[in-house]
Automatic annotation (TrEMBL):
It comes from the Bacteria. Keywords: Membrane, Transmembrane, Transmembrane helix. This is YndJ family protein. It holds the Pfam family YndJ. InterPro entries: YndJ-like. The chain crosses the membrane at residues 6-25, 55-74, 86-106, 118-141, 153-171, 177-195, 207-229, 241-263.
Length: 278
């Protein structure tokens, strides 16, 4: 696993997941959020050890945490009994880190899971932290705030596109391309709705700047994702995986996921403050 990919994955494990869980508004997630460092720190350490038993054991500790998180999805579904698009996106976010952890355990142990090479497995880990967890979570939060046709489309297309990309790993490049198209459409919609929020009054300059950066970066990075998927499916010239990691991956991690979640956290705090003073 390259240094850049390792740093991106660490950001996802140690910052993005716990920060995102705090935005769901589900008290049942508070315990796993408080305990998350107990799983994420060993997982982060596994990234910097040579492949083998020690690295795999630490990765397995992280996988345990992601399975505990994923177990909240069916319980939340049974409790809420909601089929709303925002809820579908949030449930996807709860499950996505477990997919990343499965790939991490295999990659750290040096085992080619389902026939996928170690390089692909290494890139699957950040993909399901950011395109899986962060993207689905933000789409769900945007849908909560913008419960119109566009918000519902974003909340449904992001998890559906992510699922298609996952299926495409097994069925071929055309399915993966279809997933990239659906995911890109959903994320562009998220970017558009986020940009509308930038123009709202009373949220503060820093919050507006974070929202603006997340929207603009997302619009660009999804073009890169679509061009890569198109090239893989058709044989047309397209960026290399290394170049994608340093542009699409880094941009999504810092420019989109981190900025979007920090902005949503600030908006949530602002709403609570207004509620207490009302």
């Amino acid at each position: 696993m390259s240094v850049l990919v390792g740093l991106i994955v660490m950001l996802g494990m140690l910052v993005i997941v716990p920060l995102g869980l705090g935005l769901v508004g589900d008290r049942s997630l508070e315990r796993i959020r408080r305990l998350w460092p107990l799983f994420a720190v060993p997982g982060a350490l596994s990234l910097w050890l040579p492949r083998g038993g020690a690295a795999a054991s630490l990765a397995l500790c992280y996988a345990l945490g992601t399975l505990l998180l994923a177990s909240h999805a069916p319980r939340r579904l049974a409790r809420t009994r909601s089929a709303r698009p925002a809820e579908a996106a949030l449930l996807t976010a709860l499950v996505a880190p477990a997919v990343a952890a499965l790939a991490l355990v295999a990659e750290r142990s040096g085992h080619e899971l389902f026939g996928f090479g170690l390089g692909i497995l290494a890139l699957t880990v950040p993909h399901f932290h950011f395109a899986g967890f962060a993207a689905a979570l933000v789409a769900g939060l945007v849908c909560r705030a913008e419960d119109g046709a566009a918000g519902r489309f974003a909340a449904l297309s992001v998890p559906f596109g992510t699922l298609l990309v996952l299926v495409g790993y097994f069925t071929g490049d055309l399915t993966e391309l279809a997933g990239a198209v659906v995911l890109t459409a959903g994320m562009w919609t998220v970017a558009l709705l986020t940009w509308r929020t930038v123009r709202a009054e009373g949220q503060g300059r820093l919050t507006g700047a974070l929202l603006a950066v997340s929207a603009c970066v997302l619009a660009v990075t999804m073009v890169l994702a679509l061009s890569w998927a198109l090239g893989e499916a058709t044989g047309l010239p397209h960026p290399t995986l290394t170049w994608m990691a340093s542009t699409h991956g880094l941009g999504n991690a810092l420019g989109f996921a981190l900025c979007a979640l920090l902005a949503r956290r600030r908006l949530q705090d602002l709403t609570r403050t207004k509620g207490r003073t009302a």
